[in-house]
């Protein structure tokens, strides 16, 4: 039985690596980095600091995130608290031509606040990044600011492919797409045809084989 393997590789897509900073007319919260501090299980609230966390920005989903081995944490806003957490649902953000971060199309609503009653009381000594918009009003003492994308590693992606094809019952193929910070399998679709396959498996069997090979890579 002779196998012929056709491999279709989708275009590799990499997230843009970004860091965030602040811009404000208030000196205490101007030109600060933004980093997240652990405040509970799967919860990391954003604080103004001397350095900035590195995040991945996916332009297709409009999500900012940090990925780990088994899960990802996303840029979130919950009752005014800005964080990089596993919940609630991620907030869609965009950037304007000046690299200002926009929520619902606006850069307004971000503040640096102290004494926010955060779980670990980090805001007693540091400004916490908060968000108030619409009918919500920032408490007294909060200083308005704009969140700005200041740097990133860009969209560099390296792709390598190793494919082994044999005549028989097994074929192995793997494709890996890597950014500067992580690697992940690239989407690969298999279409397998073979002489005599219709007689043994029928047309439905051939489709099932193709679907199984594709699912094995997911």
* CATH fold-level topology of the largest domain: Trefoil (Acidic Fibroblast Growth Factor, subunit A)
Q: Based on CA inertia axes, which overall geometry fits? A: globular
Please report the total strand number as a whole number: 17
Mean pLDDT: 77
Given this structure, which CATH class of the largest domain is correct? Mainly Beta
Radius of gyration: 24 Å
Helical content band: under 10%
Q: Secondary-structure element sequence?
A: EEEEEEEEEEEEEEEEEH
Largest sheet: 8 strands, antiparallel
Report the CATH architecture of the largest domain. Trefoil
Widest sheet, order of strands: 8-7-6-5-2-13-11-12
| Computed structural class | mainly beta
Number of domains as seen in the coordinates: 2
What is the overall number of helices? 1
Strand content: over 45%
Domain DUF7907: 25-150
Protein name: DUF7907 domain-containing protein
Organism: Eeniella nana
Keywords: Signal
In short:
The chain has 218 residues and is mostly beta strands. It is built from one helix and 17 strands.
Describe the protein.
This protein has one helix at residues 197-216, and strands spanning 3-9, 16-23, 33-40, 43-49, 54-58, 63-67, 72-78, 81-85, 93-95, 101-103, 110-113, 128-131, 143-154, 158-164, 172-178, 183-185, 188-194. With 218 residues, it is mainly beta. It has two domains: 3-12 and 156-216, no CATH class; 16-154, Trefoil (Acidic Fibroblast Growth Factor, subunit A), CATH 2.80.10. It has an eight-stranded antiparallel sheet with strand order 8-7-6-5-2-13-11-12, with no helix packed on it. A hairpin with a 2-residue loop joins strand 3 and strand 4 (43-49). The protein is globular. The two termini are 27 Å apart. 24% of the residues are buried. Residues 1-12, 156-183, 185-211 and 213-217 have low confidence and may be disordered.
